[in-house]
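Re: [ENG-882] Designed sequences occasionally contain unexpected residues at chain ends

Forwarding the minimal case from QA. Structure tokens:
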């Protein structure tokens, strides 16, 4: 059976049923790398931002605190969305939530900023990456930005028990396609809750004609 045929939803539902938001390896108290690149776009607080595979990340909470008011969080796991809403309390009502597999989903809105930390690198099959990039091209506005954080070339080969693809800014650009240009990239050493250091790259690309 090819990996693409496996049921990723069941995997992620189990992860979020079993672990609290602060136990997962990708937990960050302060998603400062993502926030810096979002702020670097110069986008106003009325910009439409989508966090793809947002899970129980604190990014949406930090963005709400900074005044960003048109936020969407999409995730394949309904359990992660339930837990993310609980974390936010009544502020959860300020966010649009979508439970969907981004590799097979057509967004109906257009966004100024597409953010993804630690989702794209799980797409090890070309069909999955094509589904993701089709959704991206359909939903990201012209001159909009995608902020992609993946494991770097020195990063782990697996995460959450799943194989990943490791990237450099150049290989990410190649997979995104000719209509994207690299604006900036930053390396980050993420330390997991159990003390393991993981090499990430954060890249900001602009969508052009
Ligand atoms: C490693 S976690 C990262 C979560 C969050 N971005 C963060 O940085 O804390 C990966 C997330 O992507 C979600 N995910 C995995 N595959 C997905 C897919 N095909 N479509 C939407 N979400 C997906 C998982 O449920 C999980 O929340």
């Amino acid at each position: 059976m090819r990996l693409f045929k496996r049921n990723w939803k069941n995997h992620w539902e189990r992860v979020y049923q079993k672990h609290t938001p602060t136990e997962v390896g990708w937990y960050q108290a302060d998603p400062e790398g993502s926030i810096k690149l979002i702020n670097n776009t110069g986008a106003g607080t009325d910009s439409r931002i989508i966090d793809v595979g947002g899970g129980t990340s604190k990014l949406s909470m930090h963005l709400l605190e900074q005044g960003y008011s048109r936020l969407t969080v999409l995730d394949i796991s309904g359990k992660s969305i339930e837990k993310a809403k609980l974390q936010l309390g009544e502020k959860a009502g300020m966010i649009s939530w979508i439970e969907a597999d981004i590799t097979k989903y057509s967004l109906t809105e257009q966004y100024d900023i597409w953010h993804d930390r630690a989702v794209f690198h799980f797409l090890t099959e070309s069909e999955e990456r094509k589904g993701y990039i089709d959704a991206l091209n359909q939903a990201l506005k012209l001159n909009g930005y995608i902020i992609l954080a993946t494991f770097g070339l020195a990063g782990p080969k697996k995460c959450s028990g799943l194989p990943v693809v490791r990237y450099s800014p150049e290989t990410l650009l190649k997979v995104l396609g000719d209509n994207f240009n690299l604006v900036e990239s930053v390396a980050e050493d993420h330390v997991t809750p159990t003390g393991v250091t993981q090499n990430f790259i954060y890249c900001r690309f602009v969508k052009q004609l």
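QA comment: On inspection the terminal residues look reasonable. The longest strand covers residues 140-151. Proposing we downgrade this to a documentation issue.
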